[in-house]
Amino acid sequence: MLNIILFGSPGSGKGTQAMNIIYRYRLKHLSTGDILRAEISDGTASGLEAKYYIDNGEMVPDNLVIDMVRERIHCNLSEGFIFDGFPRNISQAQVLDEILKENNSSVSLLIELDVEHTELVRRLINRGKTSGRSEDINLHIIEKRIKIYHEETKPVIDYYKAQDKFLSINGMGRIDAVFSRICKAIAEKTGNLRPFIN
Prior knowledge:
By secondary structure, the protein is of the alpha/beta class.
């Protein structure tokens, strides 16, 4: 089973590349952003609580996110997952390892998309204009989210580096070029893995 954590600052292209990886490798997408937006749209208590933090550019508390992720992993056992936006700290990484172990699996790779700061800001502002996401329009919130990523989330990289499961990919340039780099890195890191082609 292939389980990939897709990592990167807000605006690094995780969502776009997650879709490419899912199509190529037939993985189940587990995006905490999508989960939280669905909860908010449905007006659940968890969603309303999460919205407060998101609107202020803050991280949603671990207990809310972990419960949602655990439920979806247990309900959607498949050939593997791509985790987009989770884990975001060491505690969540440890919990993810435990959840996957319960299902006789483990994290295969953490792939970080490395994108320059000015490009991240440009992408987020453009996305905010087209998507209407309030957190992508306010420059102060954008900078706060990027700062939180570097201070609180990036340490997860060291956790997976210690397990020899970390890859850094240049996330600058065309979408197809970035995806090509990702596929090459996955093949090199996992040995005999073969993508599923229609």
